Amino acid sequence: MFAPLKAQIAKLNGGKDARLYPGSPLLVAAALRKADTLIACELRPEEAGRLRVALKQVRGAEVLIADGFTLAPRVKPGPTLVLIDPPFERGDDYDQIVKTTAAILRRNRNATVMAWTPLKDLETFDAFLRGLEAIRPPQTLVIEARLRPLNDPMRLNGCALVVVNPPPGLQPAAQAACDWVVARLGSAGGQARVWGL
Which one of the listed residues 36, 85, 93, 179 is annotated catalytic? Predict the structure, then answer.
């Protein structure tokens, strides 16, 4: 289940003890096919510079100093994966995910949209999911790794990945991964949930 991730970590560390862990841009870049392109958006110039250095050897990768919420809806029709992974430093990130997803789907109904969110409290997450339901997305999978009950909004109590137009076979693989994570990192009351919206 984790073999591809372990292989990328080993490759990044030159086969030696793991000191470095790849972030999502490097993991996506490692999975690119010849005809694929990767457009990575970063608001902070210094972070964009670091990302350019990390992706400089990747054919088809481009790093822009831009707001991904603004650029993502401009994706062309055709096979598309949009990964939304904001830092959640702005108060409207959840609303922006919903608006951006709706705009992407208006242009490309078959696009796969994956949005990562922290899990802090149940009401914030439920409100986000209600917002997504309101745009009537195609098949949508909610993948939750709750490491502890969602009753302390000041803590990171887990994380979730919401996937619109999930690829075949994702649900059982995601359930197995979440079960593993929660069993090893979770506390009493932790829960792995994978379900359709």
Answer: 85
